[in-house]
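Purpose: get a first structural picture of the assembly so the mutagenesis plan has something to point at.
Setup: two entries, given in the order below. No constraints added.
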Amino acid sequence: MDRVVTIDLGEHNTVMVGHDRFFVFRSAGKVQLVRDSCPHRGGPLSLARLTPDGKRLSCPWHGTRVGVAALMRTAIPMVRTGDQAAVILTDVDAEAPISVIRRRILANLPPVAHDEGGPGMARERERGARAGVTVG
Amino acid sequence: MSRYVQSELANPTRFLGSRRILRARRVGEWTSMVTTANVDLIPRTAQVPPSGLTEQARAYARSRLSTGEPTVLHGPNPYRRMLVPDAVAEIDFSRPLTADEAAGNRALSAHRLLGTFYEADTVLLPEQGLAELRDDFDLFYSEELRRLRESAISDLERFAYTFLPSEVDVTGAWTVDALDAYFQHAAKAAEVGESAALVAIEQSRRPEVAADTYLVQLALDGLTEASAMSKNLGGAYGPEQSALFKIFIDEFGYGVYESKHTTIFAKMLRSRSMATHVHAYWNFYLAGPLATNNYYYYLSRDHARFFQYAGAVTYAERVFAPGFVKMIRTYRGIFGEDVDLHYCDEHAHIDEHHGRITREQVLLALAEKHGPSVIPDLIRGIAEAEFLGGWFEADTADQIRWSDAIDRYRELGAAALSSSGEPRRVTLTPDTPFGTRSHDGKTVLRIVEGEADLVTQATGEPDRLAAGDALLVPAGRVYGLRAVSPRCAYDVHVAG
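Result (C-alpha cells, whole complex):
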C-alpha cells in the first residue's frame, strides 16, 4: 500500500521504513529523498562524498561512483512546501514501522578537493559498470 | 454596516462618475491616443508606450479608471478599481516578490493590477445597463489599455509568482498511485484542519464584522465565479474536457440565472445588507485572497500550465465541500437564521460531486492517459493551491485580529514614534479619492492636523483618529484613511 509521511526538513533528514532507509539529498538547488543504499553492495550513500566534479557520489564501502543525476531519477516522490515535506512511500507494508530522524549526511557536503579512489578499484569499476554504476 | 457604506448604498449615483466629471478630468496634461475612446493614459509629453514593467504598471495605475472616487465602496461600475497610484509608484517591479513578502504593498498592488488585467479578458457589464458607463467601458476595453496589459502581463505574472517554485517543490519518480496518495493526503489535511479565518471570526470581538470581512474575500471570486475555469473549456482534450464541463455547467446554474452560483452568492451578501455588485468591496480585498484568485487565471491563461490547473482545480473542488460545512457552522453560530447560506449549502453538496468528478475523471484520468511526465505538474497544482489557500486564510485572519486590536496598535504606534525615521506627509480632504493600501514593513501613522476615519474592514464602524493620535500598521495590514474634517494631514513613518 501507499503511505504518506510528513517531515520537517529543518529538523529531520532521514526516513526509516522497516529495514529501508532514505536520506534527504540536496543537489543543484533541489531537495530530494533518495534510498540510502549503494546499488553496488548496499553501502550507505548518505556517508558518501561528492567527487571533485560534483557529479558523482563515492560510496564509502567500495568507492563505487554513483551518478548524482541517476540517483535523482530514482528519488522517492516528495512534495516540499517551505520546510515541510510530504513523502509518498509506495508499496510499503501497512505494518512497517516508520520513523524520521536526523543524522549526519556527508553526501550534502561540498565535493572533496581530490579523488579518493583507492587501490583495488579497477575490479570494482568493472563490476560496477556491469551494474550500471561507476566504481572508483 | 458603517455609516459610509449605508450612505453610499443609499445613493448609488455617487458611484457612477458622470460623463461631465470624467471629461473635465481629461482636460489638462493628459490627452487621448484615440479620439473615439476616452483614453487618458499617456502623458502629452511622452506619447510613446511605456516600456518595462515598472513603467507599465505605473502608467496603468494612472489611468482615470484606477485613481478612485471619494467613496469607500466601489460603485456598480466594474471598470473602475482603485489601484492607489502612489502605492504602485513605490514598487520596483524588476525584483520579483519573494515568499516572505507575502504581506506587503508589493504583493497587494501587484495582485490588484494582475486581477484587473485578467478580468479585462472577461466580459463585464453593469447590472444597471451601460448607459452611464459607456465611456468607462470603452476605456477599460480600449486598444491602449489592452496593449499595455498584453505587454506587461507576462512580466507581472513572473513578478507575482516566481517565488512559487522555490516555495513548493515536487521531486521524485511519480506514479498514478503516488499521485492519488498525495492528493488524498492533502485533501484529508484540509478536511481535518482548522480554517484560520473562521477561527479568527469566532474569536473576534466583533464576529459579525469579521464574518463580513470573510464574505468580502470570498466575493472576489464569488461574484465572477468560474471565469478562470471557462478558459479551459475550449480545445479538444477528450473525456476530461467533458468532465470539467459538467462542473462548469453546475457553476453556471444549468443556464438558469437564478441558479448560477454568482446569483446565490449575491443572495448571501444581500442577507447581510451588503452590496452585491462586482467589486463593491475592491478596497478590502487582501493580498492573499487576490493571489489565490489570480492563481487560477494565471494557470488558465497559459495552457502550458494546464496540468497544473487540473491539479489545482481538483484540490479546490475537493476541499470546498468540507470548507463550506465549517463556514455554515460558524455563520449559523453568529447569525442564526439571519443569513442566507444557500450558497454554502449548495457548495457543501455539489462539491462532494465535483471533488469526486475532478479526482476520478480529470486528475487521475489525465495522469493515466498522458503518463508520468505530467504527474509532477498535476502535483504542483495541488501543492500550490494548498499553499495559496493557506495564505488566503492567514491573511484574512491577520486582518481580522489587527482590526480588532486597533486600540492596542494606537499605543504601539505612539511608543514606536520615537524610533521611527523621517516621515512622509499625506494631506486629505473629504473629496480625496479613497483607497486602501498596505506597507512592506511596520509603519506608524500619526495625525498632525484634523481628524480622519481609519477604515480596516468593509463593514462596522471605522475608528476615529484625531490630531496627535498614532497607529502602528504591521506589514501587510490593509487600511484606508478618510478625512472627516475639512482638511486632515498625517505623517507616515517607517518603523522598521
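Chain A touches chain B at residues 2-4, 30-33, 72-82, 86, 88, 90 (CB under 8 Å).
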